[in-house]
Amino acid sequence: MAAPIVRFNFLHVYHRLALFKHRPHETFVTLCQFYSSESAARQKPEQNITVLGNTYKTDSWTNVRPKILEKVGKNLHLKKGHPLNLLKTRIEKHFYENYFNRWRNPLFSVYDNISPVVTLEQNFDSLLVPEDHISRSLSDSYYINTKYMLRAHTSAHEHDLIKSGLDAFLIFGDVYRRDHVDASHYPVFHQVEGARLFTEHQLFSKVRDPTNLKLFEEGRREPTKQESHTLEAAKLMEFELKSTLENLAADLFGKGLETKWVETYFPFTHPSWELEVKFQGEWLEVLGCGILEQQILKSESIVKQCVTLIYRHKIFISYFKIDCVWQVALAMCYTAGAVDSIGWAFGLGLERLAMTLYDIPDIRLFWSEDSGFLSQFEGSDHLKPIKYKEGAHPVSKFSPCINDLSFWIPENFSENDFHDLVRNVCGEYVEQVKLIDDFKHPKTKRQSQCYRIVYRHMEKSFTKEEVNVMHEKVAKLATEELGVEIR
Ligand code: FA5
Ligand code: MG
C-alpha cells in the first residue's frame, strides 16, 4: 500500500458539523451517532453512516466526509434540463442510432442508476488494480469502511456486467475522488463507461478474407498487444475503439474540434490511451480507454459460454436428445473456461466534455442551484447547440479573494488531504488550491509548503472578513487534523 495514514476520525466530523453549522439536506444521507454528544466528547463514538438507505459501520478506514455524502443521490446526470443530462441524452442517442445487433435492436444497453456504493473488490480487485496502487490509498479515494467505498470510477461495474453476459453497454454515474481543487477537478464528478466485446466472427466480419485470422495466440506482451492477443486482433480493436470515440466526438462537436491520442497505463487495459481536446487554448484530457485485459474476460458468464457452445454443438446435442442440464454440464466440461471474446472499454468525464461543449468555465457550476445557470439549459432540446453565456451567470463577474497559507508539514503529509480539507471547509466557495512553494530547510531538514487558495463566490462578492473566517478555519483544522505547523 502507498502508506495510507488514518488521520481522520468521526469525532472530527462531529466537531465540524457543529463548527460550521453544516446541515446535510438530503434525508437519505444521515450521519448517525450512537452516543450522546456528551459522551462523544469523552470517548470515540461508534458510528453508523447511512447512504442511500443502507447503513454501514465506520472503522479505521472511514474517510468520507459529510460534504461529500451530501452529494450522493443528487444524480445530476438524471436531472431534466441539467447540462449533464443533456449531454447524457446526446451520448445515448449517438449509440442508439449508430450501433445495432443482428436483430436491428440497439446494441448498447444503458445503466444510469447503479448505486455508487461499491465494494473495494468491485472498484479495485475485479480490475486487477495492484495492492500498492496509489488509487487505493486513503488520500485518493473515499472509503465508507474497509469493505465499502464510493466508487472512484464507473469501471467498478465492468466485471459484474460482463459476467452477467452483456457484450455492449454504457454506464452513467457519479464518481468520487479525493482530488486537487481547481476549475477542472471536483471531488464528485460523473463518468460514462462504455464497453464492447467481440467474438472472432464479429471482429473480422469486415475483413475480405478472414480465413487465417485469429483472436488469440500464445505470444509475448508488447507495447501494442497483450500476450494472448494476435497483433491483427489488437490492431483491429484499437481501430474499432478509437473510431467509436472519434465518431462520438465528431457527432457532439462537429468536425472543428482539435484532438490528440496519448498513450497511457491502466491496470485493466492494455494497450491504453487518453483522448485530449483543445479547450480554452489548453489540452484537456477527457477520457481514458483501452483493450480490456483478457484476464478480466476470463470470468465471462459461464451461462453465455454454455449457450454459445450448445449452439455450436447443437447438432450433436439434438441427435442424442440429452436433457438440458446435461447439455449445460457437457458444454462446461468441454470449454474448461475458454473465452471466445476480446473487449475494449472507455471511461469519459461528463463534466469535462460538457465544459468543452457548452463553454462552461468552471466545474463547480454543475452543482449550482442558481437559476441563472440552470435556466440556460432548461427546456433545451438536447440537439440545439447551447453556449453558456458568462454574463448571464456571474461565475467570474465577482472578483476572487486570494489568500496564501504556509506551514511546516509532518512526515506523512499528503497534498490531497489538504485539498480535501479545504473543500470540506469552504465547499463551492473555493475555486482553486495551488501549491506555490515547497522547500526543505537546509539545517533542520523540515519541509515547508505554501498553498495559494482562491476564494470566489458564484453569486456575490466576498468581503475580506468573510474570506478571513474561512481561511482561519482552514488553518486551524489543518493544524488539528493534518498536524501541520502554521508559519
Ligand atoms: C478512469 O477513471 C478509468 N476508469 C477510465 C477507463 C475506463 C480506462 C475503461 C480504460 C477503460 P481517469 O482517472 O483518467 O480514468 O478518468 C477518466 C476521465 O474522468 C478523465 O479523462 C476526466 O475526463 C475525468 N476526470 C478524472 N478526474 C476528474 C476530476 N477530479 N474532476 C472531473 N473530471 C475528472
Ligand atoms: Mg486520466
Automatic annotation (TrEMBL):
Ligase in keyword set: yes
Compartment(s) of residence: Mitochondrion matrix
Name of the top EC class for this enzyme: ligase
Ranges where the Aminoacyl-transfer RNA synthetases class-II family profile domain occurs: 172-385
Catalytic activity annotation: tRNA(Phe) + L-phenylalanine + ATP = L-phenylalanyl-tRNA(Phe) + AMP + diphosphate + H(+)
Primary localization class, coarse: mitochondrion
Enzyme Commission number(s): 6.1.1.20
Domain of life where this protein originates: Eukaryota
Domain FDX-ACB: 396-487
Key words of the record: Aminoacyl-tRNA synthetase, ATP-binding, Ligase, Mitochondrion, Nucleotide-binding, Protein biosynthesis, Transit peptide
UniProt xrefs under CDD domains: PheRS_alpha_core (cd00496)
Similarity section: Belongs to the class-II aminoacyl-tRNA synthetase family.
Protein name, as recorded: phenylalanine--tRNA ligase
Organism: Tegillarca granosa
